[in-house]
Amino acid sequence: RRFVKGFSSIASPLTTLTQKKAKFIWSEKCEKSFQELKDRLTSTSVLTLPKGTEVFVVYCDASRNGLGCALMQNGKVIAYASR
Q: Is Zinc one of the keywords (predicted)?
């Protein structure tokens, strides 16, 4: 949420799908919202250059099916990967 400006307004069609009594109907709006978020999260404008004197933090999550990690510095993403 903090890496994409206007995240909540872009994701609102997807958010409504997760409400308690909402029927899950994947509409054209949902697809457009998903693609927009995916494009913004995978663009290089989200990434920043590291500063060699600052502390790095690695966040990771793993399961039997996959692995995801992010290298961050001062709350900003330097790099991320998943498999």
A: no
pLDDT for 1-57, tens place per residue? 666 778 889 999 999 999 999 899 999 999 999 999 888 877 756 677 888 888 999
Q: Are residues 39 and 7 in the same domain?
A: yes
Q: Which residues pair with 59 in a beta bridge?
A: 70
DSSP code string of 33-66: HHHHHHHHHHSGGG-----TTSPPEEEEEE-SS-
Indicate if 33 and 20 belong to the same structural domain: yes
The answer, as to whether pTM is greater than 0.85, is no
33 C-beta neighbours (distance < 10 Å), count = 19
